[in-house]
Amino acid sequence: MRVRLTGGRVLDPTHGENGVATGATRTIEIADGRLVEPTDLPAEEYDLGGDIVMAGGIDLHSHIAGGKMNLARLLMQEDRRAYPEMPGAFCGCGGGRASPSAHATGCRYAELGYTTVFEPAMVGSNARGAHLEMADIPNLDTGAYLVLGSDDYLQRLLATGAAQEQINAYVGWMVEATQAYAIKIVNPGGINAFKFNARKLDLDEANPHYGNTPRKVLQTLIRAVTELNLPHPIHLHGCNLGVPGNDETTIATIAAAEGRRLHLTHLQFHSYGTEGDKHFSSSAARIAEMVNANPNISVDVGQVMFGQTITASADYMSQYRNRPLGSPKKSIGMDIELDAGCGVVPFEYRDRNFVNALQWAIGLELFLLVEDPWRIFLTTDHPNGGPFTTYPHLIRLLMDRDFRNAQLATLNKAAQKHTLLPEITREYSLEEIAILTRAAPARILNLKDKGHLRTGGVGDVVVHTPDSDAEKMFSKARYVFKNGTLIVKDGEIVETVTGTTHVARPQFDRGIEKDMDRWFDEAIGLKAKHFRISDGELRGGAGPTILKCERTGS
Amino acid sequence: MSEIESAPRTVRDVVCGFCGLGCDDLTVETDGRMVRARDVVCPEAAKLFLRRADAPVPQCSQSGVVTSESDALDAARVLLAGAKATLVAGLGVDIDGGRAVLDLVGRFGGVIDHYASEGLFRNYTAAQRTGWLSTTLAEVRNRCDVLLVIGDDPTAVFGRLFERIVPPNPLFASSRKVIFLGAAPGEKARGQLGHADIVHLEPTDLVAALEAVVGGVQGRTLRGETIGGVPTADLAAAAAALKDAGYAVVTWNSATLSGDGGQVGALVAERATALVDALNVTTRAGVFPLGGRDNIIGVNQMLLWRIGYPLRTAIRSQIAEHDGTLFSTAAALKDADLLVWVSAFRPEPPPEFDGPVIAIAHPETRFARPPEVFIPVGTPGIDHAGTVFRMDSIVSLPLGALRVATLPSVAEAVRLIAGEAA
């Protein structure tokens, strides 16, 4: 199957190609799922008439699979009822908006032009379930970050002063066993401390049982992923999520990376000061300045979008604290398998609420004040800040200052006085949006054949018709090709295809296996070999797409 | 069958997918068609793993008359195509079987439920209204210092429960106290809890006694000599022990709390949830609801991620609708004009039903009357590989094949029925 797209203006920031600025068009050709040099061989042809062509979108942080999303679905049946099945044969199974079904997730993402999404918080003990679920998401390639840091095995290693090499072997074993792509740390050691009844854990506070500090967890795991040469840096959900005054923690955390690569996720939830009579203020400017000054740091925002959503996080410590804020008033929490935890709290972000309005502004301030578009990514931490289906609205907020200020004028009055937004003149260009949503995520995830449109790349190609209203432009892609198959036409799903799952395969000292066997037998009460997930268990037997990580030496 | 496969062999670390506890350390002997679990096995698993060498070769049948597989598949397809109100029940299947069954229901329409869902939905009255704070097996195993067991002794259903969740050498719990509020623990439970401090409180009114414990934890003064038939001082002591615990766990099996038309199970789930909520204000605690028979948790999880609804859902014209009462097996049977009974883990007979029955079921199923179509299927974990979820909904386990399959899996049988209808 060969597909030829002619007359499109190509936006490929990876290679500095900006057809929008130059007006030049280029033919894009896909054969056998890959981008190829244009030929005159027979092909399915599409005349794009100057429309904009980009690589398939990549979301590096969106909760799309795993036990916590199923708990969210169970708890929020009203979300499912409010968003029933879309008409048409291809979307006949599932619905929901804040906690959509697997099928709805794949279809709604595809309509927006996304073709790859990473689940950022896979708990090891739940990894098999998460992979089963990802296999049922159509149209998307996926991958998952394994949550480590609060697991008792690691805490025990740290407490007994284990050598870094032994930590690396453990991390390598876990990545392989759970078929993960990267390491996520959620509230470093905090989920563990909560099991020992600690209600908060600052960066330099000792775990009540093990004595380890979050700083130690963070620095040790940063070293592990560096020495294992995993494709993505530590993906960190820091301490004190949502707590006013956590700006100090965030700044201290950036310093704690000591120049090594570190990704701070949903930074908006970690950029709160304590100024003003409500003791809640924006520290976005201060944090953005710190990010700008530290090229080893990358961030995604976790923008808050108004309306009903549900928050689902492995950070049970923080989610337990947030329980009283839930709306509707119900929530689920869970301690999980000497491994991690989870907390699921429905939430409605209200534009007339001071805190919610300021959260919205803080997120936008971060987007606009962090200068390098290659180090900041467009996320709502779906569904925690809002469902991913709000991305087109968010893109317009970034690209259109008048629209942004008009929105701001409708919000809580006190919050309006506490934000720099009206003074910020920056508007994102289309090229910058292309960087945030595909080129930069491909780079930070080390996905060499994605996020760009050069020969050899994956045939994930998206066509958008330009519109002065960016929300309208990005709401419905004109065409989306997944591995060269047309899956979306004029914003409607016309086909569903099966994606793949990206996994990283580090090299590590297999001497660890004996100890893992013993740990699982004695502590977990399950055989390590049954915890391990074989390649054949992924994607209905098709197996994963493996990135081999060559050791660079420690 | 090759010589090696038919030779006697011993398979270690076999995963058991029957009760939902997820034991994965069984030793099983096989010899040709024969399968027998040898040790560290509970009586239930021993019975369900057993396959005799001289068992008759199962065959498809229509109304009791032996037919070819293709005739049986054709007949099933005709019945499905002609039905207006299909109920797909039983649903004792691995994940892949569940996916295939859901696809079938998506295509032909129908109500979908699992035969062991009563307990699950009693729990959901609490879990869906207020949510709850729960825990998983390895947490109970290592952290729990005070365990409250409500209702019957669960070892009758989960033979190795206390061996698994209250072993003698936990990582963190410095002592183990197990409080039984309900029936007395049997010999097996006492044996597995030899190292623990056991307390037994026998109420005449379980819910009232439990409510008193909740009140005690919440700081209410308990009045009177007895509450729910238990001396008030004992209930106050139980509340104090829970409150003083480092990590308290509350467990019950809603499936066996069927008093008052299931109300007892629902009330126990609700009070247990309130108890754990109250405990977490000052210490740590979690509910640990028991269940998970024949992969009900796995099928329920799969439904949640595939269609966004749990069991007891109807799909009509590709639109799903969930109602925990209306679409229970018992209620849906009253309106059904076709029952598709799927049960691969055990020879569970279908419920009484006047209309036509398609049974995609365990070969040893004994039917009250012969079903219109019977397609015998292999058992996950014996005849073919598969995945099942443990009761806590977090951990899932890979089942392996112990012998060469001569019967289709549920997934294969159902896809044969559905595939050719396209």
TrEMBL record, chain A:
An annotated Gene Ontology molecular function: formylmethanofuran dehydrogenase activity
Presence of keyword Oxidoreductase: yes
Enzyme Commission number(s): 1.2.7.12
Domain of life: Bacteria
Enzyme class: oxidoreductase
SUPFAM superfamilies named in the record: Composite domain of metallo-dependent hydrolases (SSF51338), Metallo-dependent hydrolases (SSF51556)
Every Amidohydrolase domain range: 44-486
InterPro entries in alphabetical order: Amidohydro_3, Formylmethanofuran_DH_asu, Metal-dep_hydrolase_composite, Metal_Hydrolase, Metallo-dep_Hydrolases_sf
Stretches assigned to coiled coil: none
UniProt keyword list: Oxidoreductase
Protein name: Formylmethanofuran dehydrogenase subunit A
Automatic annotation (TrEMBL), chain B:
Record protein name field: Formylmethanofuran dehydrogenase
Species annotation: Ancylobacter crimeensis
Taxonomic path: Bacteria, Pseudomonadati, Pseudomonadota, Alphaproteobacteria, Hyphomicrobiales
